[in-house]
Prior knowledge:
single chain; alpha+beta; Tail_protein_I; Phage tail-like protein
Amino acid sequence: MTAPGYERFLPPVVRARADAAGIDLDGLLQAFREALTGPSAPDAARPAPGERIDRLDRLFDPWSTDPELLDWLAGWVSFAVPPAWDDNYQRRRAVAEIAGVHAHRGRREGMARYLDLHAVAAVRPRVAIDDGARILFARPRPDVAVEVHALLSSGPLLERAAGATRVVLDGLVQPTCVTLTPELDLLLADLGGPAGATQVPPGLWRVDRTGRVEHAGAPPLPRRLGPVDWAPPRDPSDPPDPGDVPAPHAPVGVAVVAGPTVYLLDADPEAATPGRLLRLTGERLDVVDEVARWDQLGLVRPVAMVALAEGDLVVLDAPDGDAALVEIDPSAIPAGGTPPGRHTLAGLEGAVSLLALGDGSLVVGALGGDGGPAELVRVSRPSWTATRLLSGVDGERNPIVAPTAVVEEDSARLLVLDVGLRPLAAEKDNPFLRDVARPALVHRVDLSTSPPTVSTACRPGRLVHPTGMVLHDGTLYLCDPGEPEITSWPRRPWRTTDAEFGVLVHFAVGPALSRPPTAEQVEMQKAIRAGIERIVADQQPARALPSVTTAV
Length: 552
């Protein structure tokens, strides 16, 4: 008998009658024996059914199931694994997480997670959803990457009829910089928009920390700061009133000193001199003076401005060469020439952000040289000596790409706002192809260790192209103007259009994508875009019009 002992599990009466009748119990029990112990042939390759039963739970786990069962398992959760996916990790992750994604279908979170699952491993694009969140907030916690939430998403209400556009309700469009007022409200400089159309002009806005825009009048309507003639005309046929001091063109910095007095650094590309420094006073900042033009201050390409405790201003100037810090006493502007307070930061190029620390020193954020990671530089005053803070951190441990804002979390830690794109300015011919294209997020830099450590403070996925940040009472407030407008690459003005949103897709140069892309690589980019468009169409919120914008 090949399976001795199996008969003894049968009742004695069955064994006795089988023996009397000459029935081969061993043959009858063979099916049960093989079901429990496997086939008796020594070269049998398949595992015993008993072993398969023991590991049955693993077959229903996307992370441990057999690769050939993934497609079958995906069907259980209404998901079809794209045939082009050859990355085993990506396939397993998508099947494991898709059920949770389905729970958020029709919401921004669900669409963002679905797009992230479909990011191709070989060429992973940076996909950002611009749903109009202008002001966002987060509450950082040590050793935890927290969520970023929208604080203000609503913008102006425009009425388009008979070829004309009327601003029914004013509002923020593209806030580029933010600071705190003495009352601890948010003061934001807005770029307005869209470019090339007389719709919502740039200006200044006061928003409390709950996201409420200042209102006035009966009925109460959103009201910007500054002179009345800075607001958009109620009738589009009315010619704009330039007033005594024209409204801002492209704010690049805003700072508050005692008084309160607000200084606005404004770019004006169309003027004979490219920019000016404005001073705004009064309860509603409706008294405006032009303090100086950029050439009077020796400025070439200013990118940020802060106010010092003593009331002076420091402007970060980032020309093509070395960056410089320009110290300005607004009450003593020179009649012409370069002011004596210009301090060059030798060897530092690509400066983009500036922070005044509580001890009076400054921190400058800059893009990395030669394609390396970003750098933070502490500048001590009054000696104006510069110390690089991240020079001892190797590239793998420094993921910061483009530090567009820096705040002081405490005496030993900084929070750094990172757009994730390098170069920061888009190329004219292919604005969505960059050397580096990572999600925008917030990093924490711990200066108490040697070398400093860089960690993720906020989870990615909520920011588009953030440029400003302040911290108060443990809450981080961020302004996000969205992707900068590119004249050579027109797109729909979804930030000034009701029920529209944008999906921006950036590609990064790498082993699978060159600059310029080959014909085969362009086809690959088109396939990725087509997949993203299908996901957006399937997952978009009801009654919303998406616009997918990318390089192909």
